[in-house]
């Protein structure tokens, strides 16, 4: 999906903030997009699989210790995300939203869809989410995440 996003950015010449022409800013986007695969995506989707899909497929409740371990793994990468990528900036690259922010929030919505509100005790992350939602439009954001946010009702 990252390759498709980069293709679309180049083909349709999107506004510069999505994938900046400035090499340092672009490097920050690329850095996040490379890091997120095994970190945010890996741990977030693992929580979703463990909490929602496995019990659905097996018909068996999840052992609490298994969920605790998976949740702790996600918490470690969330802390890294805040410290390394967000720091004290409005968005990952700085003052404007980029593909990095969009990809990050989409991946974080999987655990939210599983019923884990990872924003609740993380004010910096919650404020960043609010800014990303506002930048893309709250209605569009809700439409895009409707399926994943209703998955816990399966």
Automatic annotation (TrEMBL):
It holds the Pfam family GST_C. One of its GO terms (biological process) is glutathione metabolic process. Keywords: Cytoplasm, Transferase. GO terms for cellular component: cytoplasm. Its EC number is 2.5.1.18. The keyword Glycoprotein does not apply. Residues 22-154 form the GST C-terminal domain. Its main location: cytoplasm. SUPFAM superfamilies: GST C-terminal domain-like. It catalyses: RX + glutathione = an S-substituted glutathione + a halide anion + H(+). GO terms for molecular function: glutathione transferase activity. It is found in: Cytoplasm. It comes from the Eukaryota. Belongs to the GST superfamily. Theta family. Homodimer. This is glutathione transferase. It comes from Sagittarius serpentarius.
């Amino acid at each position: 999906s990252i390759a498709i996003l980069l293709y679309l950015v180049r083909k349709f010449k999107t506004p510069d903030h999505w994938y900046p022409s400035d090499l340092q800013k672009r490097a920050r986007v690329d850095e996040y997009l490379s890091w997120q695969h095994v970190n945010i995506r890996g741990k977030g989707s693992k929580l979703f699989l463990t909490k929602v899909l496995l019990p659905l497929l097996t018909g068996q409740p999840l052992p609490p210790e298994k969920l605790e371990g998976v949740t702790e793994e996600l918490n470690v990468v969330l802390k890294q995300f805040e410290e390394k990528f967000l720091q004290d900036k409005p968005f990952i690259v700085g003052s404007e939203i980029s593909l990095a922010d969009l990809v990050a929030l989409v991946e974080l919505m999987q655990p939210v869809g599983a019923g884990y509100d990872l924003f609740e005790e993380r004010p910096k992350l919650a404020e960043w989410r609010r800014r990303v939602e506002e930048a893309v439009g709250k209605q569009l954001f809700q439409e895009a995440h409707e399926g994943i946010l209703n998955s816990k009702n399966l």
